[in-house]
Amino acid sequence: MFLTITELTAVNNGLPFDVSANEYPSILSLAVAGSTLYAGTAVGLFASVDSAASWTAVDLGVTSGTGGVRIQSVASFETNLFAGTGDHYNTNGIGILLSTDAGQDWLSVGVSNTELTALASCGPAVFAGTNLAGELYTTLDGGSVWDFTNDSIGDTYVTELAVNGSVAFAGTFSSGVFISENYGQTWTRRNQGLSDLYITALAAGDNMVYAGTMDGKVFSTGNNGVSWTELVGDLPGVESLAAGGGYIYAGTYDGVYGSSDNGLHWTHMDANIGNKRILSLIITGETVLAGTEVGGIYISYDHGGYWTHASGVFSSSRVYAFAMRGSSVFAGTDPDGVHQSTDNGGHWSKINTGLALTEVRALTVDETNIYAGTRGKGVWARSLDEVVGAKECESDFSGVRVYPNPAKDKLNIELVNYENTDIEIMGMDGRFIRRISLRSPETQIDLTNLASGIYALGIKNKQGYTVRRFIKQ
User: Fold this and answer.
1) Which of 447, 367, 368, 434 shows the shortest CA–CA distance to 404?
2) Domain span at residue 91?
3) Is the pTM of this model over 0.70?
4) Alpha-carbon distance 274 to 255, whole Å?
5) How many Cα atoms occupy the beta-carbon half-sphere of 431 within 13 Å?
6) Which of these, 155, 197, 109, lies nearest to 379 by C-alpha position?
7) pLDDT at residue 454 above 50?
8) Boundary of a domain, candidates 328, 363, 393
9) Does any domain span residue 11?
């Protein structure tokens, strides 16, 4: 049996009417939760408990712009109601909102629907910078909840992120460089020696951090930004940087430039690449990979002397970002999503399962996930357990044992290769609590003065860095 609809009736009672435009707001989404019908509009969220006979505005507890919050999507799951705000044009978007009490109270739980410019992982934290002024986020639980953490950065664009040990660097558009030594809890501006504050590239390598600028300047610091030194030679506008093994590489509007003497002299490495715009660079062993604006990926096995075109990536792809984990290198591209290579960039394959948008602007990897920052659709995560070869470096810390967990008064740590190992206890908000240097394979930590809750245990030595979590009862 089919139901025949003979007449449609307007059910707009309670929705705001724009007299000047002679229209009601655009309805962008509808959802039913229990006995309530929700309508997401261009000027806010509305609810009806009488089958759309009347509508009431839902107080989200937040504002955006002058026309209310744009509700692009509404969805319910069990007792939770989600509202997705904004769109890929950044129109009145403030992230993902969650209500667990039928819309009475709301909590922001996601990164805004905006273009992600940079991602980086540092200990238990992952940072996400966006193309909106003053938008830098941090997550300490693998991306389930993102916190707005850059009150001290102010109203400036975050263009690049880099990590040197346990120190995070944020490059900005017009305000120079900020650093955080407590996993994003606070940020401090460090610009002494920077004559150009328009930061377009950051890289860490060989115990140094390098910053590139829009006007082609490159600066270095060996003291985590306390002071910067300008390197010799103005380059074309710097888009990307990579450093390691005694070499510095700068990706510019006019190909790759390289230096083997700490930036005193630069060589234009244009063979086989020509004048292509270089959006991203990464060093993996003796290999250098260059991601271009319109030509896919180029690879050099001789420190930039000769470049070949990598296979498996479309020649027209923009390659915005690289990340590395274990024997795997990842590339974020437009329009082909995320690619993976397990042979230092020689061959590539797509790993886009579950990724809704294929324009990937930023990548980073932590102990458990690979994160992809997209244009307009926020941050996506995929478990490294699903990616072949990506967790091989976990074996460096296979001898770690942390027990009991949960713990009451004492926490035991066993580590076979304990020499030169430092352990940091941190709150899940990134707050530093205590640092301990291991003196034997077995160490016991007193937790008597620690409040009940979940904590992160950062373990760092020459093998690398790993994080374990424990519960204090």
Assistant:
1) 447
2) 27-108
3) no
4) 6
5) 7
6) 109
7) yes
8) 393
9) no
